[in-house]
Specification:
Blueprint lengths: L4 E3 L2 E3 L3 E4 L8 H9 L3 E5 L21 E5 L6 H13 L5 E4 L12 H13 L3 E6 L3 H10 L5 E2 L13 H10 L5 E3 L5 H9 L4 E4 L1 H4 L4 H21 L16 H8 L2
Parallel strand pairs: 3-4, 3-10, 4-5, 6-7, 7-8, 9-10
Antiparallel strand pairs: 1-2
Helix pairs in contact: 1-8, 2-3, 3-4, 6-8
Bound molecules: 1-deoxy-D-xylulose-5-phosphate.
Length: about 260
């Protein structure tokens, strides 16, 4: 079965996107990527150090994996655009995850500034994946602006709190045509599976893997969960009912017994 996810003209078999921050040891990164089978990883441009390969996160990303620089640290559209241009000039390709976060307590994204940055960067030929607070109105505008996907948060970045925004994400999945990738807050493989069962195209996970007791083992667990959730979505989940419904209806012998004949 061909069930590839196509983003920016690139065909992906894996629907798990990984973040590369917070790992206790950078040497874990290539092992985690291999075990998760992720084909796209996001890196913060501020962690790209071209002058020192040992300190450069890009040195730990296996060949063939799509690098999606993110604009973390940006507080407005102009800063995000500048980071994206720098990343492309540094050889990081033309994918970019727009992350514009003026709030330092909950790390909530600024949806309006994100839309502005998307409009600018799409025109400059970037494959733009904006990270947003789930909102159908802004989702439609991002899609119209040419975003390659929309990435709503499930819960605050790094919180591991799960799909707190599930009902809002569901609206995006139902109404938008671009892929919906849940980004941030997913703390457990079961939550990744739930997002996929809902019809999300992929999930982006960082903290839950990087801070696990065994990050490599957790990467594998997420890969399996994402695949299970996707298969469940494609198979079509059965209806949810208010009341019980017997699995085996009364027929023949049992029906006669019931009537006392
Ligand atoms: C690396 C990255 O982009 C994260 O900021 C992303 O939003 C993932 O969030 P979690 O760390 O909560 O998985």
């Amino acid at each position: 079965m061909n069930d590839s996810l196509v983003i920016g003209g690139t065909s992906l078999e894996s629907r798990l996107v990984l973040g590369t921050g917070k790992f206790p040891d950078r040497h874990l990164i290539p092992r985690v990527i291999a075990e998760s089978k992720a084909q796209v990883v996001t890196v913060a441009l501020r962690r790209v150090n071209l002058a020192n390969p040992e300190d450069n996160v890009l040195s730990y990303i296996p060949e063939g994996v799509v690098v999606m620089p993110n604009t973390s640290g940006a507080r407005c559209a102009e800063e995000a655009v500048r980071i994206a241009r720098l990343a492309r000039a540094a050889g990081c390709g033309n994918w970019v995850k727009i992350e514009i976060v003026p709030d330092q307590v909950y790390l909530m994204p600024d949806n309006q500034e994100t839309l502005r940055a998307t409009e600018i960067l799409v025109k400059e030929g970037f494959v733009v994946l904006p990270y947003v607070l789930p909102d159908l109105v802004i989702g439609r505008k991002l899609q119209d602006a040419g975003a390659a996907a929309v990435m709503p948060l499930g819960a605050p970045i790094g919180s591991n709190r799960g799909l707190k925004t599930a009902e809002l994400i569901r609206m995006l999945v139902e109404e938008l045509e671009v892929p919906i990738i849940v980004d941030a807050g997913i703390g457990r493989p079961s939550e990744a599976a739930a997002a996929m069962e809902m019809g999300c195209a992929a999930v982006l996970v960082n903290t839950a893997v990087a801070t696990a007791g065994d990050p490599v083992g957790m990467a594998r667990a997420f890969a399996l969960a994402v695949e299970a959730g996707r298969r469940a979505f494609l198979a079509g989940l059965g209806p949810v009912r208010e009341y019980a419904e017997a699995s085996s209806p009364l027929t023949g012998f049992l029906a006669e017994l019931e009537q006392g004949t």
